[in-house]
Design goal:
Strand order of the largest sheet: 1-2-3-4-5-7-6
Helix content: 25-40%
Strand content: 35-45%
Low-confidence stretches: none
Largest sheet: 7 strands, mixed
CATH architecture: 3-Layer(aba) Sandwich
Radius of gyration: 15 Å
Number of helices: 4
Mean pLDDT: 96
Distance between the termini: 30 Å
Order of helices and strands: EHHEEEHEHEE
Structural class: alpha+beta
Shape: globular
């Protein structure tokens, strides 16, 4: 993880976070968020009080990526966490997503989560699916034609999971 650090996001990071999540949301290819979601709504979602949000920051201070972690469910399901990750398009291929996922796995363990679940990984996002599998996630479910991709039409969404506790 050379060339950048991962730290907790602050409200001062909001413009940089929007610079990353805005184009991804607008593209509508990997997240089930409304492509016309405005900046305020998107940043409020990403930095919401139900989440812990982090940023990957280059040595020069530029935010290269961001992720959040939160309980996947309330009550009896709060011991499993869920995360969302986005990387600046200009920083693709530099190991940012891998580092953020590894950071989130470590952070989840320190928070006492017993597993991490990705509820809706768009199957056509091959780069993400391949990375998550390389980092120990298994595909545990497939939601047929659950995502309407703007170019490919209806594609499957995957549920991916990794246990964090041994018992």
């Amino acid at each position: 993880m050379t060339g950048f650090i991962i730290r907790r996001a602050t409200t001062a990071d909001a413009p940089a976070i929007w610079r990353i999540i805005g184009p991804t949301i607008r593209a509508g290819e990997t997240y089930a968020l409304a492509p016309d979601m405005g900046e305020g709504e998107a940043v409020a979602y990403w930095l919401g009080p139900d989440k812990e949000t982090f940023v990957a920051v280059a040595e020069d201070g530029q935010v290269l990526g961001t992720y959040y972690i939160r309980p996947n469910q309330a009550g009896g399901g709060r011991h499993i966490c869920n995360c969302g990750y986005m990387t600046d398009a200009a920083a693709t291929g530099r190991g940012i997503a891998r580092a953020m996922c590894l950071h989130s796995l470590d952070h989840a363990k320190t928070r006492g989560y017993r597993g991490m679940q990705f509820n809706f990984v768009v199957s056509s996002n091959v780069r993400a699916v391949t990375l998550w599998q390389a980092l120990g996630f298994s595909i545990i479910g497939r939601l047929p034609l659950a995502f309407q991709h703007p170019r490919l039409g209806y594609v499957d969404a995957l549920v991916m999971f990794q246990p964090l506790a041994k018992d």
